[in-house]
Amino acid sequence: MHVLIINAGSSSIKYQLIDTRDEQALAKGQVERIGIPGTSLVQKARGKTLTVEKDISDHVGAIQAVLAALTDPEYGAVRGMDEIGAVGHRVVHGGEKFSASVRIDEAVMAAIRENVPLAPLHNPANIMGIEACQAVMPGTPMVAVFDTAFHQTMPPQAYLYALPYDCYTRLKVRRYGFHGTSHRYVAALAPGYLGRPAGAVKLVICHLGNGGSLSAVKNGQCVDTSMGLTPLEGLMMGTRSGDIDPAIVQYLMDRDGLTIAQVMDLLNKKSGLLGLSGKTSDMRDITAAAHSGDESARRALQVFDYRVRKYIGAYAAAMGGLDAIVFTAGIGENDAAARARIADGLQFLGAVIDPVKNVPGAVGDISTADSAVKILVVPTNEELAIARDTREIIEKA
Ligand code: ADP
C-alpha cells in the first residue's frame, strides 16, 4: 500500500509517500509559507527535485499542490491519486483519549478539537491538514497518529503535578509527553540490539533533536517522560528553556515589565542553546564555536549535557535499574562528541562508552564489551512508524 504521511503546521506541510511493502519513501516534500506571499513546494522523488513557487492561500490549495507534485509525470512518484491507499496524519495532542493511533471519523475529529486548548498552536494546524485532505481526497481512509499516545501508560505518580487535584480533574493539567511516535519506534528496536525480549528491558530513550525529550521505558511501556503539559518542560533544547522555577515567570514580568506572552516567547523561542550561547540554536554551530574557544558556547554545551545526564540518573531510579541508554534524533544519532560527554559521569551506573565504536555514523551498540548498561544509537523514523500504523489500521478494517 502507498501511504501519504502528512505533518501539517500552521503555514507549512511536510509529507512523505511511503510504499509499505518495502517501507521505502517514494517521495519526500515540504510546502512552506502557506497563506503568506512566497509559497514554495520542494519535493524529492526518484532522484529528481521538483520546486514549485506559486502563492497558495490555504491548506486545501497546499494539498492540491502536493497531489499534483506526487502525480507529476516527470517529477512525481505515482500515476494517479488512486494509487494512494491511505493518509496517515501526525497529530500532536491526543490528550487522555488516545493511547494508540486511530482511524479518523467524526468522533475522532471532535476529540482532536476538544484537545485544542492543550495544544493551541499545533492541533488547529493538524485539523486543517486533515480537513484539507478530506476535501481533496474524499473516500481515502485516514489515520491519526498522536505524539502523546505512547506516554499514556505513565502511572499517576509520573503524570500528576503537585497542584490542587482539581487542576487535573477539571482542567486536565498533567504530564502528557511528546515525540511519542519516535520513542515508541526506537523502544521497539532497542531490545533487538540487546538480544533481549522487549518484555524484560529497562531503557532510557534520549530523543535529542531541535526539541528534545527523554523517556523511561520499562518492559515496553513508557513510565515517565521529560516533556509535560506542553513540549516546554524537561531538557534544555534548541530554543526552549526546559525545566525552570515557575516563579521566574513572575520575576521576569516584574523586573523587565514583560507581558505573559513575551515571557512565554522568551521561554519557547529565545532560550535553550540559543539563549545561553547568545548565538545559535543549532548544535553543529554551538559545537564548532565551543571548539574555537567560545566560552558561552562551551557553557551552553555543559548545561545541555548535564541536564540529559541528570534525567538519565532520575529515570534509572524511576525504573529501579537500567539496561540501556538509547540515543536518537539529529543530535543523538549524529553527534558522537555529545554522546561521549553525556555518558562521561555515568560510569557509576555501569554505562561505559567505547570511543572506538562511538564514531559518526555509528548505529547499534557503542558501549564497551563489559559495560553493564549498554549504550545504543538507534535512528528514529517517525514517518515510517506512522505509515505502519496507518496500513495496519486500514487493512484491519
Ligand atoms: P527536529 O527536532 O527539528 O526534527 P532534528 O532531529 O533534525 O530536529 O535535530 C536537529 C539538531 O541535530 C540540530 O541541533 C543539529 O545541529 C543537530 N545535528 C544534526 N546533525 C548533526 C551532526 N552531524 N553533529 C551534531 N549535531 C547534529
Keywords for this structure?
397 residues, alpha/beta, Nucleotidyltransferase, domain 5, 2 domains, eight-stranded mixed beta sheet, six-stranded mixed beta sheet, binds adenosine-5'-diphosphate
Structural description of this entry:
The protein is an alpha/beta fold and 397 residues long. The protein has helices at 59-70, 106-114, 122-136, 156-159, 165-169, 180-194, 247-256, 260-269, 272-277, 283-291, 295-319, 329-334, 336-343, 382-396, and strands at 2-8, 13-19, 24-32, 40-45, 48-53, 86-91, 102-103, 142-146, 202-208, 212-218, 221-225, 324-328, 364-365, 374-377. The protein is built from 14 helices and 14 strands. The strands form two sheets. Strands 5-4-3-2-1-6-8-7 form an eight-stranded mixed sheet, sandwiched between helices. Strands 11-10-9-12-14-13 form a six-stranded mixed sheet, with helices on both faces. Helices cover 38% and strands 20% of the residues. The two termini are 14 Å apart. It has two domains: 2-146, ATPase, nucleotide binding domain (Nucleotidyltransferase, domain 5), CATH 3.30.420; 195-377, ATPase, nucleotide binding domain (Nucleotidyltransferase, domain 5), CATH 3.30.420.40. It binds adenosine-5'-diphosphate. The site of adenosine-5'-diphosphate has 12 residues, from helix 10 and helix 12.
